[in-house]
Amino acid sequence: xxxxxGLKRFAGGHAPLGSLRGQLLRWLLVPLLALVAVNSxxxxxxALEAADIAYDRSLLASTRALAERVSVRDxxxxxxxxxxxxxxxxxxxxxxIFYRVTGLRGETVSGYADLPPVxxxxxxxxxxxxxxxxxxxxxxxxxxxIAALLQxxxxxxMRGIALIQVGETLDxxxxxxxxxxxxxxxxxxVLVLAVATLVWFAVRLVLQPLxxxxxxxxxxxxxxxxxxxxxxxxxxxxxxxxxxxGAMGRLQQLxxxxxxxxxxxxxxxxxxxxxxxxxxxxxxxxxxxxxxREIVRSIAATTDSTVHLANRLLSVARIEHxxxxxxxxxxxxxxxxxxxxxxxxxxxxxxxIDLSLDAPDEAWVKGQALLLHELVSNLVDNAxxxxxxxxxxxxxxxxxxxxxxLEVADSGPGVPEAERDKVFAPFYRAAAALEINPGGTGLGxxxxxxxxxxxRGTVSLETADGGGLKVLVALPAARxxxx
Length: 483
Hints:
Elements: H1 7-10, H2 20-67, E1 70-73, E2 76-79, H3 83-90, E3 97-102, E4 108-111, E5 132-139, E6 142-154, E7 159-169, H4 171-218, H5 238-285, H6 289-321, E8 329-332, H7 333-343, H8 345-350, E9 354-358, E10 364-367, H9 369-386, E11 392-399, E12 403-410, H10 431-436, H11 444-454, E13 458-463, E14 469-476
Parallel strand pairs: 9-11
Antiparallel strand pairs: 1-2, 3-4, 3-7, 5-6, 6-7, 8-10, 11-12, 12-14, 13-14
Helix pairs in contact: 2-4, 5-6, 6-11, 7-9, 9-11
Catalytic activity: ATP + protein L-histidine = ADP + protein N-phospho-L-histidine
GO molecular function: phosphorelay sensor kinase activity
Organism: Massilia litorea
């Protein structure tokens, strides 16, 4: 039925839900129509039962009136029925009536001898004190209702029981049944129409706050992300308004973060681009080939630094727009660390750094392989950049009960405890880092922090053996069978 078509969608389907007003009207009116139909059938049956009782009582009265005229004369049962009564029995304004009087030995005393006899299984009526039975039969091709009354008769010479039967056609009963049915349907139709009108107006009135909420949201300026007033809607709809306000709050935070990131990125990019422009102008005015080669070498170094900054900015943007929890899957972290170690082996060899790996064959974490690769690359790249020539960088993967810990330890200058919380902020650089690598971007650890947060892990800084920096990243473990 249309009223119940939305049940599957409510249970978890994704088909369009359609009109709320239409669904409310269907859910209210269709059950109401079903109840009215059941009620109409019940009322109709009760009315027919009452009509049958009334007609049976009238039929019994006619039978008793006839029984009063049955007596015994000269040893015979006689029925003293005047002609006026016979005329009234044979025809009635609402149908035809038939009668029969049966004597003590089963002989027909008066009336229609072929009137159907009393069936053997018809019980005596408990509604009346008389010995009467009611039954239906066919007579001359028409259905009739017959009352059979046992009437005691006696005189000085004999005693016995006479049978008086009076039957009538069902025309009057059928006419009354049709009238009762039509009256019942008319009343129920008026009731349904009145209820439907009231329900329609009630639903329209109840949904007006939702329409006001819709107009409030629809007419807002694009820049207006303030909370929606909960007083506009009913108590049951306020959780939806709370969710909308929460979504607007998160959207405000996202927009504010993007604006802050764009401002910081513009500021960071403006400096190397200005330097590039200045170096290019110097190269155009320089005639000495040796000096020009130095300028071009400076342009190449500035370009490398700018490309590195742009790549870091793209990594930040990728993290912000790649946080899809549905894309998380089991990833073998030792394989990612080995791959990064091979990719960055050349810079380590150029600085004579001992780059070592301590990892088991398998240690699975749930995450995105691309972002995990970016995380390890940033940590290893920072370790190599800030480790002096001839130093060491250790990569270790240690599985624990419900997590896998990645450790990147170097023999560089480390980070003072007072600055360990600050270095995760974008574009912040510690004093020791500025001395060793003035051209850094200050985005490496910020990217690491965002990727770890996306993977529901933790990151911390400690002092490594020998005074360097140790970065510990703990990520939730995953089952290898899920890979």
